[in-house]
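Any chance you could type out some protein's one-letter sequence along with its backbone structure tokens so I can compare the two?
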Amino acid sequence: MVTIVSHPLVQHKLSLMRDERTGVKEFRELAGELSLLLAYEAMRDLELTSQRLSTPIEEGDFPMLSGKKLALVAILRAGLVMTDAIVGLVPAAKVGHIGLYRDPQTLKPVAYYNKLPADIAERRVFLTDPMLATGGSASAAIGFLKEAGAQSIKLMCILAAPEGTAVIEKDHPDVDIVVAAVDSQLNNHGYIVPGLGDAGDRIYGTK
């Protein structure tokens, strides 16, 4: 299932990211802010339990997270800005990294790094990558997570193309996708249209 977070704050910040005049510092900050807003939606179904607490006024039973383990896994390199922001929201979460790059000729993902928490099978996993374009890298990363034993996975992206969401829904129908927007299509170079350019280059100023 694809969930598009249509909140006005999300859409406003996404538009600022799209603007070619937005510089590296502001783009990176916006990516982090958007990641927190997306995490709010992606983590909506976290389990709660009741805990007895004393307020300054009286004692009562209040909702707390049940303690189910979480993991944030970034698809390198651009996914780092998302996990770095979200870990402040859930500091007990463990963080993993999957290194993939897209071959510019075939547009297929090539793996070069894979480091996950040893107990990934026991954790709810939130996989982060700002752009879901062809879907190849995200699908491969989900495959690595499943091979490592992960059973509960959500994919969080700032922007997606219909081609990318279709690949995930076909390859991994059990994985929900949370995005700020789904744009119209991919161009001949595999970039999302109208998109926001190469997220990694804009985050790290490498273009």
About this structure: The radius of gyration is 18 Å. The chain has a mean pLDDT of 92. The helical segments are 8-18, 24-42, 80-86, 136-147, 162-171, 199-204.
